[in-house]
Amino acid sequence: MNAILIIAGKELRDGLRNRWILAITILLAALALALGFLGSAPTGAVKVDPLTVTVVSLSSLSIFLIPLLALLLSYDAIVGEAEGGTLALMLTYPLSRGQIAIGKFLGHLSILALATLLGYGFAGLALQAVRGEISFAAWEPFFALIGASILLGASFLAMGYLISARVRARSTAAGIALGVWLFFVVIYDMALLGALVADQGRSLGAAQINMLLLLNPSDVYRLLNLTGYENTAMFSGMAGLSKQTGLGMPLLVAVQLAWIALPFGLACALFKRRQI
Fold first, then answer.
1. Would the pLDDT of 131 be above 50?
2. pTM assigned to the model
3. Strand locations in 49-169, DSSP E?
4. I need a labelling partner for 66 at 20 to 30 A (CA). Which of 21, 112, 180, 193 fits?
5. Which residues contact 91 (CB under 8 A, 6 or more apart)?
């Protein structure tokens, strides 16, 4: 365990040295603040807390940004070390490959989690300060958004590690990572929407649609944020969907955790068999 924490600490220090945490924090804070302040007009008209509007907006836009950042952090985590020769050096120490993979993953997750917490947290405090009062009812879904964003990032970190453990060249890993991002963030939902329009309710029922949604971590993230709380569900127009899907928050969190464990477990298995 001590070796894992040492490796995780090294990755975190590298993130601080390379300005990764600062860059991601500023980007996420700027995005949240822009969405919060741009949504101030409708909130004033309908008396909705700015944090609620921010949660709804970020739930859609973070799907594009968080997975991309996670894949940028992780796509060369293993193959990059192998190409640079540092992986062979690390393996000369009394470290197992599992310890290396887990330590690097925890380090990258710490970078993403810290940046998300600071970026979104700062934006939330700024929005509440401008409003002049604190709404605890609005903070609960906002904290849930931060937690769900970290889980979404962890799932794509795990996919990045799977890619990195499988390929032999960093350029190949970068191309596959971009393809994975496009598939889960853009293509999957477009294909699902097209299938629903073509099917017109003939064979795709609620159970089939629920299963298809659970097969995409981005859709699980969206459901967690937009259907988990009454105020966000009402403002996002998904109150009816939250009652029809029957997918409660415990199930959605469990599925998102599975999207972390399965790809990362497979990545560790491939890494253990990798020839250096």
1. yes
2. 0.88
3. none
4. 193
5. 97, 100, 276
